[in-house]
Prior knowledge:
The chain has 123 residues and is mainly α. Among the domains are: 42 residues, no CATH class; 42 residues. The chain contains four helices and no strands. The chain is extended, with a radius of gyration of 34 Å.
Amino acid sequence: MNETISNLDALETTATVVQPLPELAVGSPLPVSWIIGGVVLLVALYIAKKAGWLDRIRVFFLQTREELLKCSWPTREELRGSTWMVLVAVGMLGLFTFMADLLLGGVVIQDWLLKGLGGGAAG
């Protein structure tokens, strides 16, 4: 009994106190990390604008939208039919793979590996 008490006394638990983030009230100053992040973002945007990257990105998205408008999209019924065909095909392929593994797995393990390794070790 005394051993148990002494063992329990030897164990100390430490608690970590987590300080909550300070709430930002209206008019209070922003944290320094937010200011630095904002300045870095503004500098990066300025450099991208001067290098012409923003204009190229805008043109890319405009051209992408034009190409998507040229596409013919399936109707809801066509999409539903295609989805069912894909699901059935995936199910059949999964069933085939399962059956092939079930039937051929024993043959490969018993005949080729065990007999091959057993015969090779004895010879």
